[in-house]
Design brief:
Helices cover 84% and strands 0% of the residues. By secondary structure, the protein is mainly alpha-helical. It is globular.
Length: 412
């Protein structure tokens, strides 16, 4: 498949996944009151962070080791399966603990046992979905990996639609998790047939090898979730769950233009992992920025006209928030590409430090801007934060690619 074909494939499957996730969010927004929607968003926010921690970076590590492995890969595949199983359980428990700890600070409804159970199920499912996609990507099967992510998201959307007559965040979150789980069973069967899921005997070194390489990427993964989701948490602390529900609608719409940069990032990771380098980095970043800007313009115009008629006047403030968040997405596009390139090159320590710095910056920026300007202040803070991260990520990647090229010339 040509590079353009790969990009179109990744973009198409990313778009399908985005449509399903956004569709589930929008259906939930219509079904729930702002308070209940806010509870659901907070549960998903903590769950997403816990899912990444549970994965311990083994998905990215598996992709790199699979590209470099010679001969028998069965031990690596089996080690990855074990890491995924233990990680899913750990992530679920961590997500439940995180929500319970947040209840005294935000809303005691977060600590109700049924809601905690729903968060645990959602968290485990999100962790496994990411691992499944990484398994397909590791084998160079971008279309199949993208389809896996899209299909499981479709399962989540189906679950939300089936339960859309409820007014309970717990019911909707559990329904979404259940829909994902059904499709994950189908994906597990497909992975086994494709030789990417097995339980053959392994040595401890196979597991520790994944953990050792994956651990540094936790800084990037966790930092990225904090950067992208801490805004909801800060708003919950300062303005309550209803404000989170309104902000979440704007944020969901604002992420729509991200699919092209996400596809370019996946291709950049694979190219660098195979030693091909990043073809024309300047052109790649310009394409990511231009596509995001164009998509943001169309999204903003449509949302301005439709938010109030579709979701009601209580969500009107989402329109102004969306304008700022779309500007932030344009600033974020270079980071989406460059951060994946760092992982592909095995520069996981640099990626981890960058992510950790982003997390620290997010806490500081969102804390200050949220206190000064509320939800709109948090949105404005994301513009500053995203721009800084993109500048740092692209600078790091360019320097490392230049150093690698120089070393290759000296070797000749």
């Amino acid at each position: 498949m040509t590079r353009l074909g790969q990009l179109m494939t990744m973009s198409g499957t990313s778009a399908a996944q985005l449509v399903c996730n956004a569709g589930a969010a929008l259906v939930a927004t219509r079904a729930l009151s702002p308070d209940q929607r806010g509870l659901m968003v907070l549960g998903m926010t903590i769950g997403s962070l816990s899912a990444l921690i549970g994965g311990f970076g083994t998905g990215s590590a598996f992709r790199r080791q699979f590209c470099l492995a010679d001969g028998d890969r069965s031990a690596l595949v089996s080690a990855f399966a074990r890491c995924t199983t233990v990680g899913a359980l750990s992530a679920a428990l961590l997500g439940m603990a995180g929500i319970a700890a947040s209840a005294p600070l935000i809303d005691t409804a977060l600590a109700r046992p049924p809601f905690l159970f729903a968060v645990g199920c959602f968290t485990a499912g999100q962790m496994v979905v990411s691992q499944v996609a990484d398994a397909w990507f590791a084998d160079g099967r971008f279309h199949r990996g993208g389809m896996a992510a899209a299909v499981t998201s479709l399962g989540g959307l189906a679950g939300v639609l089936l339960a859309s007559d409820t007014e309970s965040a717990t019911t909707l979150l559990l329904a979404q998790a259940g829909g994902v789980a059904v499709l994950l069973v189908v994906e597990a069967v497909a992975l086994r047939r494709g030789g990417l899921l097995s339980w053959t005997p392994i040595s401890g070194s196979a597991v520790t090898g994944l953990l050792r390489l994956g651990a540094p990427t936790l800084g990037l993964s966790i930092g990225l979730v904090v950067v992208l989701r801490a805004d909801r948490y800060v708003i919950g602390l300062t303005a309550g769950t209803a404000a989170v529900g309104v902000y979440s609608l704007a944020a969901t719409l604002g992420e729509i233009p991200r699919m092209i940069p996400a596809a370019l990032g996946q291709l950049c990771l694979q190219d660098i992992a195979h030693g091909k380098g990043a073809p024309n980095p300047i052109r790649t970043i310009l394409l990511a920025v231009a596509a995001t800007a164009a998509g943001g313009l169309l999204t903003g115009l449509a949302a301005w006209l439709l938010v109030v008629p579709v979701f009601g006047p209580e969500f009107a403030a989402a329109r102004e928030l969306l304008v700022v968040l779309l500007a932030a997405e344009v600033c974020f596009a270079p980071f989406v590409v460059a951060s994946r390139g760092l992982i592909g090159g095995g520069w996981t320590t640099a990626a981890g430090i960058l992510g950790a710095a982003g997390a620290a910056g997010a806490i500081g920026v969102y804390g200050v801007t949220g206190t000064l300007g509320g939800a709109i202040g948090v949105a404005a803070g994301s513009v500053v934060l995203y721009g800084g991260l993109s500048t740092a990520a692209w600078t790091l990647l360019r320097r490392r690619l230049s150093s690698t090229g120089a070393e290759q010339l000296r070797g000749r």
